[in-house]
Amino acid sequence: MRRPFFRSALFLLVTALGLAQAPPEVEITAEPHHHLVFKNEELRVFSVEVPPHGETQMHLHHHDYIYVTLGASEVVNAVKGKDPIRLQLQDGETRFTPGNFAHVARNVSDKPFRNVTIEILQDEKRRQAASTWDEDRGLHILEGGTEEVLFVKDGIRVSEVELQHEGILPLTDGPLLVVALTDKVRMMQGRPQPHHTMSFAAMVKLDTGGVQWLAPGHQKDLWCAGAPAKFILLEFPKN
């Protein structure tokens, strides 16, 4: 007669033990491998580094985000409630991930796993807005470089850009985020004027993994002022 009681008690005990062993979820800002490097009303940018064979805590992503991989790596993505997925990522690989989940990132390689994680704070608003871009993929040949459009998500166009010395990237009217994929990225927002005079609105000086936000201005170009530069460009629609 007591067996149903014991079975119920055993079930409750096993459930309690399972909950006790489940890793707690922390906010991304409290996860020690995520370091906030920039924030404004549009986004939060984190520099992420997980040592070889290390892992993050179970952390929350409330918003959609874009991540840029720095160096080749192999990672196990363990999303809460789903089977883990093994990912082999290449240097500069850039992906979009919808938010509202928690996960652990496990580095299963002998090298540090590094990336730049860009959280889109206005994701819901941007999902509902009509796209302002004519294309979501494509290759543009520039004056001294190339721009490959990788994707458009949440109204943001994401491209990989390579510029040779004195190469020029035409800019759109909206704000921009630059994520450097090479060291010593040196660019001017503008270009040299006749008679060798210079007229620049902003200077970009970044090493690998560095980020810089460029507000809309009167200058309509990025001019490579140093060694060849490679970077990821996030273009936001004009408000």
* Tally of alpha and pi helices: 2
Average pLDDT works out at 88
The end-to-end span amounts to 71 Å
Helix content range = 10-25%
Overall spatial form: globular
**SSE topology string:** HEEEEEEEEEEHEEEEEEEE
Could you name the ranges where pLDDT drops below 50 across 5 or more consecutive residues? 9-20
CATH class category name of the largest domain: Mainly Beta
Give the CATH H-level superfamily of the largest domain.
Jelly Rolls
As for the CATH topology of the largest domain, it is: Jelly Rolls
Query: What is the correct CATH architecture of the largest domain?
Result: Sandwich
> Which structural class should the secondary elements be placed in?
mainly beta
Please give a structural write-up:
The protein has two helices and 18 strands. It is globular, with a radius of gyration of 22 Å. The protein has 239 residues and is mostly beta strands. The protein has helices at 3-21, 123-128, and strands at residues 26-27, 34-39, 43-50, 59-61, 65-70, 73-79, 85-89, 94-97, 101-107, 113-120, 138-153, 156-170, 176-180, 185-192, 198-206, 211-214, 221-224, 229-235. Strand 2 (34-39) and strand 3 form a beta hairpin. Strands 11, 12, 13, 14, 15, 16, 17 and 18 form an eight-stranded antiparallel sheet that branches. Residues 9-20 have low confidence and may be disordered. The relative contact order is 0.15. The protein has two domains: 23-125, Jelly Rolls (Sandwich); 129-235, Jelly Rolls, CATH 2.60.120. The protein is 10% helix and 52% strand.
